[in-house]
Amino acid sequence: MHSTLSERLEALAQTHGDQPAILEPGRTVTFAELAHQTHKLAGFFTSRGIGANDRVALWLPNTIEWVSSFLALSHIGAIALLVNTRFRSRELEDLIERGQATCLIYWPGFKGIGFDEILGDVSATAQEKLSTRISLGQLQDALDQNWPAIAAHGDHGTLTFTTSGTTSLPKFVLHTESVILRHADAVAKHFDYDGDTCVLASAPFCGAFGFATLISGLLTGHPVACEPVSTADSLLALVRQHQVTHTYANNALILQMLKASEDRNDFASCKLFGFASFAPAQDELFELALHNGLSLTGLYGSSELIALTAAQPLDSNQGDTSTRYQPGGCLVHESARVRARDPETGHLVAHRESGEIEILSPSHMAGYLDQANATRKAFTEDGYFRTGDLGWCISDRQFVFQARLGDSLRLGGFLVNPAEIEAVVESLPGVSACQVVGAQHGTNAVAVAFVLLEKDSQPAPDRWHAACKRQLASFKVPVHFEVLEAFPTVESANSVKIQKHKLREIAQQLLDKQHA
């Protein structure tokens, strides 16, 4: 068992040297070439004054250079602060200041975006902290030069993911090399990677979802196909060209790929597509997947546990397959365990009762960077991570995710999953999508529904209310339906997330106005 990424990369360079490691449109790097590039960049970074424990903001899209830069930083013992390419000046400034970055690696001309201008909008105080700036062109030039060999650093905290920060300042989630390796091995084993495996990575490497996809293939000796900018058509072309077998993506993107396909044989090589339910109302996904012979399964993960923490089973010998299309699943680490706890009483609940999901897994974070108190609060005394997610357990290894705990509703004295109400509303004529939140109405907690309309449809709140009343317990029926043009969202490295806290604020304002 290797304890560092450098050890694993050297081993793969010996055993898989001439085999492709990263497949980009128009270029490929083998495992031997990747190891060579990593050593070159390690020498280059050292010459630029970067050393052990230095914090480096890595602001690149999914490219070979992202991979070699990250591996080189890990080799010399630096910590890569992974930056979303969608970040702009305020977010970048926060990462530099609170993450204490002293170096920035970036692609100034990526997608025609003025990254130098964005950097120029960052405060002078934050900019002064960056003693070193390295562009993509400098990385590429460095590979043509000779640099002294640098001894590999030992196992250490090597990267941070940035949490979405939908309700508070983002946290920096630190993971060690050995944990990353263990997780890559566990994912590859769980999903039955073999000699034909080729993994498609569409989610950004800077987020836990894209990173887990990358390492599951790369660190276990399997090629990973990626591209700096993706569309459904371009990803479908990669599937065809490289005979992709596995990918993990959000449900909306997989649906777009299925719609872009005009030939069922496009997915002939695909053994499994895992999906995260980031977008609402995607039932068409399952119909098209079945038509195209594509196996789908629901996933679960987090920055703190690394994505691909769990996946719903396809075989009844592995677990309950009736929940196959629901988020959650069987934990990929054989030693991992899951349980649920009543958030009000603090007592553990029985299987199939809803509560806060707690997970014990070898993939858990080393901690929140520079936040010891927050790290302690994130874990129970016996080492389970408090996910902040509402769900229920099927066994001590399988569970179903329902909602973020802060998004769950306490209605009529019962803990209610808003998705249950949303599914009913979305089934009504004229409704394309729905989000349900809780608000206070007098002395009672009630549900409020926010609705997006189908094209050329008109609001029908009275009819919607009557339909819900026929299908749901009275305490679950929304007391108000509000039509929006779009849901408020925030972009993270993994997806565009709906900001339910903003919907809750709007809901409370609406009810307060009615009650006045």
UniProtKB/TrEMBL annotation:
UniProt cross-references to SUPFAM superfamilies, sorted A to Z: Acetyl-CoA synthetase-like (SSF56801)
Keyword field contains Metal-binding: no
Signal peptide limits: none
Domain of life: Bacteria
Assigned keywords, A-Z: Ligase
Domain spans labelled AMP-binding enzyme C-terminal: 420-492
Domain AMP-dependent synthetase/ligase: 10-369
Pfam families: AMP-binding, AMP-binding_C
Family classification: Belongs to the ATP-dependent AMP-binding enzyme family.
Name under which the protein is recorded: AMP-binding protein
Organism this protein belongs to: Orrella daihaiensis
Lineage summary: Bacteria, Pseudomonadati, Pseudomonadota, Betaproteobacteria, Burkholderiales
